[in-house]
């Protein structure tokens, strides 16, 4: 049985700056991010890399949008708590 690791990597991107709007105090995240899904094997070989997705999309939603309808029952999957 093959083991694969599925994870979503998130990278920060520079936020757009509106010079005409004064800075506001916000308790939310102050970064914009992009995400992409990676599938690797136990030897760290990349088997799949998705297109870039917006940072607000949940990890499992990215997975479902790409792999809906595929059968992963014959594989051992290693995933983090985002799945």
How is this structure best described in words?
By secondary structure, this protein is mainly beta. The protein has a domain of 57 residues. Helices cover 11% and strands 37% of the residues. It is built from one helix and five strands. Strands 1, 2, 3, 4 and 5 form a five-stranded mixed β-sheet that branches. The longest helix is centred in the C-terminal third of the chain and has 9 residues. The radius of gyration is 17 Å and the shape is elongated.
Q: What descriptors fit this protein?
A:
mainly beta, elongated, 83 residues, five-stranded mixed β-sheet, 37% strand
The largest β sheet comes out as: 5 strands, mixed
Helix content: 10-25%
Question: How many helical stretches?
Answer: 1
Number-wise, the strands total: 5
Quick check: average pLDDT?
85
- Poorly predicted runs are none
Shape: elongated
Bin the strand percentage.
35-45%
User: How do the SSEs run, as a string of H and E?
Assistant: EEEEHE
Q: What is the structural class?
A: mainly beta
Radius of gyration, in Å, reads 17 Å
Straight-line distance between termini: 21 Å
What topology does this entry show?
Elements: E1 3-13, E2 32-41, E3 46-49, E4 53-54, H1 59-67, E5 76-79
Parallel strand pairs: 1-5
Antiparallel strand pairs: 1-2, 2-3, 2-4
